[in-house]
């Protein structure tokens, strides 16, 4: 018998939330363990998964549970949606789920039916990537597998590492970049031709520029991607020739106000410099570094804003919203909203580059303070201002999804999912529904006696 869904009554947050629109929330209960993953299926649905091995499909507008998918016997390690082909109306939206039980489940998101369970893996699949252009998907573990929509294994690599592939991104030239420990491996996919009718995958290059395990990997645009490591190395790569375009290895720069004992303590905390997550837009890279947030401008090639202690614990996930806003969630159980605001600063004053110090390549030395060329009289820098604090979870918030008009969805180690709603918008909708109901019942304009 399936567990009964519990949905809490509507709750409201207190005053003093600044520009935070998410002042109402719905608490969704269906999981029995840590909820680690959220994936968007379309404009109205999302799926959740975690350590209980269960996948739940939800309505993002109402919080209604639509489907519960069971089949895995251990925790979920990766989830990704496989959208239908535009040219094939009969093709359905698929959901791929990898588990520590060394299987990948393939589900129909409309019916909840498990289409197939792939069981030929020699190790746990840690990441899944869809290459929509080629209508294939990749599985990353101790090897790299290439699969089609019919779930045929097209080709795979030999055993790469016991560490396994932790992250994958697609790059130009039918290539993918794979993070394997501290190595970045470039693979090229060879598509079938008349001469060679079989798929193949070729290891092109191994890049050993990182000194420690790569924790984060993300595309910037069509010509570049970025990686971040456990010891605070940020590298920006050319996606065409795989060369390093910018790097930073200044692990920690304590604020001058701290005393010597505090500085020693901070420098000894390796978690304070781990680059846990990236998100990018056309202008900036937003990086979660330990407990801090940093905004690195691609054109200026430097950090333009930072909050070194944005949270009390490690930040696990960040994403950019419209109107120069940013959301972060952390092991401290908080979800916070930030706004990037411009400010003018004289060139004679030191620009607080914080974690990165990216004026050039490599480490900053004593000569770095001497400009190579004359700077402009005024340098525009920015600040990250806290505009909202969403307090609802009692434990680590693993990630979130932004659903525009439908709100924000968060998942946590407290087994809960919270659907955050725009309070002003929801109040307007309730008033409109009441108005329509009164009009239908004839109570809006009662006949005069």
Structural features, described:
The protein starts with 5 loop residues before the first strand and ends in a 9-residue tail after the last helix. Strands 1, 2, 3, 32, 33 and 34 form a 6-stranded antiparallel beta sheet that branches. Strands 4-5-6-7 form a 4-stranded antiparallel beta sheet, with no helix packed on it. The longest helix has 18 residues. It has about 450 residues and is mainly beta. The chain has 2 helices and 34 strands. It has a domain of about 80 residues.
Strand count, sense and barrel status of the largest sheet are: 6 strands, antiparallel
Radius of gyration: 24 Å
* Structural class assignment: mainly beta
> With helices defined by DSSP (H or I, 4 residues minimum), what is the helix count?
2
The share of residues in helices is: under 10%
Question: Characteristics of this structure?
Answer:
mainly beta; 2 helices; 449 residues
Helix and strand layout, with pairings?
Layout: E1 6-7, E2 11-12, E3 22-29, E4 35-40, E5 45-50, E6 55-59, E7 65-69, E8 76-82, E9 94-99, E10 104-108, E11 114-118, E12 127-131, E13 136-140, E14 144-148, E15 153-156, E16 165-171, E17 175-180, E18 183-190, E19 200-207, E20 214-221, E21 224-229, E22 234-238, E23 244-248, H1 260-268, E24 275-280, E25 284-289, E26 292-297, E27 302-307, E28 315-321, E29 325-330, E30 334-346, E31 378-391, E32 397-402, E33 408-412, E34 416-422, H2 423-440
Report a brief summary of the structure.
The protein is mainly β and 449 residues long. Helices cover 6% and strands 47% of the residues.
């Amino acid at each position: 018998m399936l567990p009964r869904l519990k949905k809490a009554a509507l709750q409201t947050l207190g005053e003093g939330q600044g520009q935070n629109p998410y002042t109402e929330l719905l608490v969704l209960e269906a999981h029995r363990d840590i909820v680690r993953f959220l994936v968007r299926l379309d404009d109205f649905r999302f799926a959740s998964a975690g350590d209980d091995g269960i996948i739940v499909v939800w309505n993002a507008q109402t919080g209604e549970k639509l489907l519960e998918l069971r089949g895995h016997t251990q925790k979920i390690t990766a989830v990704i949606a496989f959208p239908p082909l535009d040219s094939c109306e009969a093709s359905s939206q698929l959901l791929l789920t990898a588990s520590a039980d060394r299987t990948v489940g393939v589900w129909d998101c409309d019916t909840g039916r498990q289409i197939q369970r792939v069981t030929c893996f020699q190790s746990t699949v840690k990441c899944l990537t869809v290459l929509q252009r080629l209508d294939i998907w990749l599985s990353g573990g101790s090897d790299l597998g290439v699969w089609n929509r019919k779930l045929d294994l097209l080709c795979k690599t030999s055993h790469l590492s016991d560490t396994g592939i932790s992250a994958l991104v697609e790059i130009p030239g039918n290539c993918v970049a794979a993070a394997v420990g501290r190595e970045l491996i470039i693979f090229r996919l060879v598509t079938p031709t008349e001469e060679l009718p079989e798929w193949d995958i070729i290891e092109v290059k191994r890049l050993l520029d990182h000194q420690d395990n790569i924790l984060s990997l993300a595309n910037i645009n069509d010509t570049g991607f970025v990686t971040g490591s456990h010891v605070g190395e940020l590298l920006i790569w050319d996606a065409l020739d795989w060369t390093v375009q910018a790097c930073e290895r200044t692990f920690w720069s304590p604020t001058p106000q701290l005393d010597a004992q505090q500085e020693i303590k901070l420098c000894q905390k390796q978690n304070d410099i781990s680059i846990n997550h990236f998100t990018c837009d056309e202008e900036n890279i937003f990086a979660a570094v330990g407990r801090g947030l940093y905004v690195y401008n691609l054109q200026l090639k430097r950090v333009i804003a930072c909050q070194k202690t944005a949270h009390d614990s490690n930040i696990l996930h960040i994403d950019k919203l419209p109107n120069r806003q940013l959301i972060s969630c952390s092991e401290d159980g908080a979800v916070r909203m930030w706004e990037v605001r411009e400010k003018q600063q004289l060139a004679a004053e030191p620009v607080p580059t914080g974690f990165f110090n990216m004026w050039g390549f490599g480490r900053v030395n004593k000569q770095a303070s001497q400009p190579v060329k004359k700077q402009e009289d005024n340098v525009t820098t920015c600040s990250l201002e806290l505009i909202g604090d969403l307090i609802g979870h009692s434990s680590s918030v693993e990630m979130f999804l932004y659903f525009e008009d439908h709100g924000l969805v968060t998942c946590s180690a407290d087994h809960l999912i919270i659907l955050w709603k725009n309070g002003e918008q929801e109040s307007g909708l309730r008033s409109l529904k009441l108005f329509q109901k009164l009009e239908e019942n004839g109570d809006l304009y009662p006949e005069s006696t």
